[in-house]
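Bumping with the actual sequence this time:
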Amino acid sequence: MFQLAGSLAAPVVGAFLYRWLHGRSGAVRLFDRLMYVAVPAIVVWQVLPHSWANHGVLAILVLLLGMGTPNLIERVSRSLAPHTDNLALLAGLSGLVIHAFLEGVALASKDTGVSYAVILHRIPVGLMIWWIFRPRHGFRGAAAGIGTILAATVVGYAVGGRIFADGDGVELYQAFVGGSLLHAVFHQGLHDHSHDHG
């Protein structure tokens, strides 16, 4: 249960960081760099070895699949909303919702390595959502964005509890989520949103 509680608290912590980081570009860059190191380190040293021990090269292939799948989601989102900012924001949020659901499923496996990676990654996700939605849609809009992520995580956790009841496929799924976390860190970092002020 610690894994779920930590993953739900992390985006809220990120939202609270908004006020402190807003207007402090140096602090944002430092925060970004910490995430660039911490999340990949946890994936490489905690998540991947377990998958490799049980599945060998297949674990690497699934990790790469996890890194590539968000690209497909992003392309579909862009094609659905090429002209209006609000639709583009909703499409981007839908991608984060899918990602949060997958993370919730992974958390149900109770592996501490993937749990720590998910929790760390979700702090900048919460900050990013608040940074984008708060200036455009106010407190309620930003809170709704965070709430949607939290709800998707809980649903994923509930579903994952059934999927992983017998332990089958846990390591490969964790490798997939690990790959998607690596994608998120290197392609959806806060530096992409530093121009959004309000």
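The tokens above came from a reply further down the thread. DSSP finds six helices and no strands in the chain.
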